[in-house]
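Our preliminary data section would be incomplete without showing what the modeling component actually yields. Below, a chain of 519 amino acids is followed by its predicted structure, encoded as tokens that our downstream tools consume directly.
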Amino acid sequence: MTKVTRRRWSLRRRLVASCVALVAVVCAVIGSVTIFALHDFLYGQLDSKVEALAVRAAGPPRDADGPGGRPGLADRRVPSAADSREDANRMLGFLFGGGQPGETVGAVVDAHGRVQDAAISATSSSSSGLVADPLTSAQAAVFAHVPLDGRTHTLRVPDLGTFHVASSHADASGRTVVVGLSTAGTRDTLSTLMWVEVSVSAAGLIAAGLAGAALMRIALQPLRRVAATATRVSELPLHHGEVALHERVPDSDTDPRTEVGQVGAALNRMLGHVASALHARQESETRVRRFVADASHELRTPLASIRGYAELTRRGKESTGPDTRYALGRIESEAARMTTLVEDLLLLARLDAGRPLSLTGTDLSPLAVDAVSDARAAGRDHVWRLDLPDEPATVRGDAQRLHQVLANLLANARAHTPPGTTVTARVLRRPADVLLQVEDDGPGIPEQLQRHVFERFARGDASRSRAAGSTGLGLAIVRSVVAAHGGRVALESRPGRTVFTVTLPAAYSQPAPSLTTHS
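Predicted structure:
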């Protein structure tokens, strides 16, 4: 199942979206109130017109055939002998008088609720004047359901649409005229207003979004400058060496009266505290390095003297007992071990102090041959192999220090693997760098120790036995020397395969050739 991660919006986007949403809510409220108010107003006007039309329809009927009158519905219908039919036609005479506000319908309902006649004002006129169109029986039948209470009601007439209708007062024979006006014009007006408001609101939202984005970009410039300062500080190498932390937020962005200024001022105070702490740490490390370097340098002479006098005494002409010879041998052994430790500490102190190396074009293949030869002589119970390229694997480096890197890696494999382990020193050419690998098929390094293996005085044996002669500084020297050459060292270990890989920048530009194996 794929986990969907929601993308977090930036502060600028959230602020712009909030402003646009607020404008949208305001536009929606104003538009809704306007439409509702206009709806009530227009339909109120329509109801007033319907009521006025009902009063007009209830007036004295005009004789459409009299002098100066207009032709009635009888002109368009088959003449009827029934007087009630003629009276109904006369009661709808208001449809011919003109002046109706839109489509007008009328119907005559008798006392029993039956529709005697129904018509709608025509949209065109003949040469003899205005005319009216009769309604079909299905259309006329809906008027029978209109309450005759004199109030305005909404009526849906088939094929004609919606009308607001009202009834007039009944005449002496109990007949009532129901009149109505179409709501089409009112609906069109409201629909037009709604689309206009939607269009204007959409344009306003787009304009608000663009303007808001521009204003937010300007308003958040100080915050971006603060973030840029923090980013530059995060890219500084603060974990080692002398650190000069001069980055600060500009004074223009540290105004305590603004929120961004408060953040900038707080960041400057924090950077000041960090700079003070780093300066104190640097002074402490410098004193420790100087002490280690001075102590190591001063200890070299007495240690050499101890070894010399012990060897001179043991080889002298005076006879010594076995206990004395054993004690002198132990003195020499411990002095040699102490000398190695002092030399390692002095080298680390010099590397930490940034002492320059003697960088020259160095081929790693001869160094690997010499180092493996030395390791074979010191560890004959291991199987030693070489894997070298045909062409020189040249790097810009200090040959003596790189030989020490190889010697330390091979010594580490010899000291921490059982007899019979196969150790392979491999040099690999690549277009941009050279790989130096030391691989063994021993039991591997415990996982909990792998993250600390390059630290100083890291020991693989918990008992810290001196049987192997390890000082715990070999791999720390490897990392320091490789880092001083601009390279890196990595470890990959599991039971049956442990590989230390040193990567150094190459001093050649030609493509790397194929590899061959030498044993």
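The mean pLDDT is 78. The radius of gyration is 53 Å. Preliminary results of this kind motivate Aim 1 of the renewal.
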